[in-house]
Design a protein that fits this description.
This is GDSL esterase/lipase. This protein is α+β, with helices and mostly antiparallel strands and about 220 residues long. The protein folds into two domains: about 1-140, no CATH class; about 145-220, no CATH class. The chain has helices at about 80-85, 105-120, 150-155, 165-185, 195-205; strands spanning about 5-10, 30-35, 135-140, 190-195. It has a four-stranded mixed sheet with strand order 2-1-3-4, with helices on one face. The longest helix is centred in the C-terminal third of the chain and has 24 residues, at about 165-185.
């Protein structure tokens, strides 16, 4: 999966994207694009010694059955909770559980979506963007703080944070919001929500105890 913490939930073109609890009709399908924070098990199907894995303890300790399910979390992840909130019993299955592969950069994820749609409806020619494939409603999460995650600290002999990573994340986020707003103004029916993970993680690192954390420097295991 690509290293950017960016997610798109692509909903059917004619269905209102609201929580099922509000009385809305559940969308017929949900498609998730993103990195390991949204992975529901694709990593289990990737080959090679350098592929990050989440199929051993203590991953999954709070997942049903307390078994590792390929999610980089102790239980359900963001994709799972959003899917359940929209009326699905579970999140979308890992794409590679249906089609084997070796790598899934974001560009490849979009191509996979195109291939999946072509199996559901008659093919209507070569398409390059999600909008032209029929996507209309997007939930997008921007890139959070990257400088102090354990993987970044491991690269520093003293375990210090890498401020350059945050500059990259901040620069991408600054460009992301106006770009999406511009698309919404140009594309008929384009609707979106943009969650500020950068702000959320910044607040968490500033006052970790306020949200229940006692250690924000060490890895979980």
């Amino acid at each position: 999966m690509e290293g950017l913490m960016v997610m798109c939930l692509v909903i059917s073109v004619r269905v209102l994207c609201t929580a099922a609890g509000d009385g809305a009709v559940r969308p017929p399908a949900i498609f998730v694009f993103g990195d390991s924070t949204l992975d529901v098990g694709n990593n289990n199907y990737l080959t090679g010694p350098d592929v990050p894995r989440a199929n051993e303890p203590y991953y999954g300790v709070d997942f049903p059955g307390s078994v590792p399910a390929g999610r980089f979390s102790h239980g359900y992840n963001i994709a799972d909770y959003l899917a359940k909130n929209m009326g699905f019993k579970s999140s979308a299955p890992a794409y590679l559980s249906l089609h084997a592969g070796s790598n899934i950069p974001l560009s490849k994820q979009v191509k996979n979506f195109g291939a999946t749609k072509s199996q559901m409806v008659a093919k209507r020619g070569q398409r390059a963007e999600l909008y032209t494939l029929g996507a209309r409603k997007f939930a997008i999460i921007n890139v959070g703080l990257l400088e102090c995650v354990p993987a970044a600290r491991l690269l520093d002999a003293a375990g210090a944070c890498d401020s350059d990573l945050n500059k990259l994340a901040s620069g991408l986020n600054d460009a992301l919001e106006p770009m999406i707003a511009s698309l919404a103004a140009k594309l008929l029916g384009f609707a979106y929500s943009l969650a500020d993970l950068y702000g959320l993680t910044g607040a968490t690192f500033s006052d970790p105890r306020a949200v229940g954390y006692t250690d924000i420097s060490a890895a979980c295991c």
